[in-house]
């Protein structure tokens, strides 16, 4: 974190930065943590890192307050306020190189300087390890044969208990088993703590489930990471036998044969490398929505609250816009008669400009939606395929991983062009795009569930979709009973966007597209070294 502060009247400045996070439902700011205090500079480089859980599907609001420390008091009101900056975690992550620069505000009429915030994904969150073990001279447990050994791995918890994290397969009738190599996330094995105890138990498998205990041993990720060596040959000890028999040494040995670490590529690697997320919204203007001037209409513009269309647009769009550098979004409509001649269109620009349907930010999309309600005539039918094909044409022209397209369709009813829509989705499934469908109103949405493809992969004319790219939700499932629309919108966005990173990664993996390298780390003028936060 690199704030640059304005010159102060004092000769000295003791700077500290305070991070606040915001609750989703009550919008209350809570202090998350403070940096160390840095003396005698107007360009402090804070070393302390803040570790936050990141969720693509949530709007995670952050606030950074800067103070000049005047005393040893922990009460911030006792110190001089230097300025503040607001952003979302997605905004930081979505900036080029995950580095965001913002002006500090909060002192009217004064320049407060700037703050630079940098985000880094924690490495041990995405490390996996491939390991293989073998046993030697394990105890014979079966009366008519040898043993059928298998291993159980346990992660130790903070409270001293153990949690099962892996079981090997059973190797039948041998005292010298070689188990298959297996892959496990490092966080599952030791929660990212390389020195945490890992307990491994060895059993003889029995058909009735009463497996016989052969013995156990403990190790750690750090020990295992030495690979195949004399350090990773473990005596399998049965504590009961050891307590009873003086000459007991062990119940055999288990040896680590191989240890390979794999860094899994994540959604954030692509974002950090410059991949842009393009957001398009398509609105249902069919007559079944009701007359927009009447309060019973789903398109009714109440002076007191947003309608369901506006809430869905804002909920999803405000999150996705953090990953689009130009913040220009195409906004389309379908199922309306357009002025001046009453032509029915299933792919028209909400801003009235078919050559340039882009709107500036989500606020621009909302304004274009409100204006179009005043000029078009709601009609029908409900055809999805034209707007899907519209976005697919753009996605088909950029298949190198530099861009990914998300289409949000908001609709009130039964789809009219089901066969064509299925074909459009199957065609789009091999392109860098995802489709979110939000159903508003009281209608039955059985057809939309079929498009979702979670249970049965969607097909058309005998061709199956290459990937699952559709997510459908009915808006009514997210209506908060207390009337808290902010909470409704947060829940909606969380559910419809949760699948996007996996859909994104599935496209990149199938196409063999690797993330572009991130830009080199920022080094301020005259500062040869930067601590990145």
From TrEMBL:
SUPFAM superfamilies linked to this entry: C2 domain (Calcium/lipid-binding domain, CaLB), vWA-like
Alphabetically sorted, this entry's keywords are: Calcium, Metal-binding, Repeat
Tell me, what is one Gene Ontology molecular-function annotation carried by this entry? Answer: metal ion binding
What GO terms in the biological process aspect are recorded for it?
A: cellular response to calcium ion
One family name in Pfam for this protein: C2
Give a yes or no for keyword Nucleus in this entry.
no
Q: Which residues form the C2 domain?
A: 1-104, 107-234
* Keyword NAD among UniProt keywords: no
Q: Which Gene3D superfamilies match?
A: C2 domain
Q: Name one GO cellular component term.
A: plasma membrane
| Superkingdom in the source lineage | Eukaryota
Q: Its family?
A: Belongs to the copine family.
Name of protein: C2 domain-containing protein
Species for this entry: Oncorhynchus tshawytscha
Gene designation: CPNE8
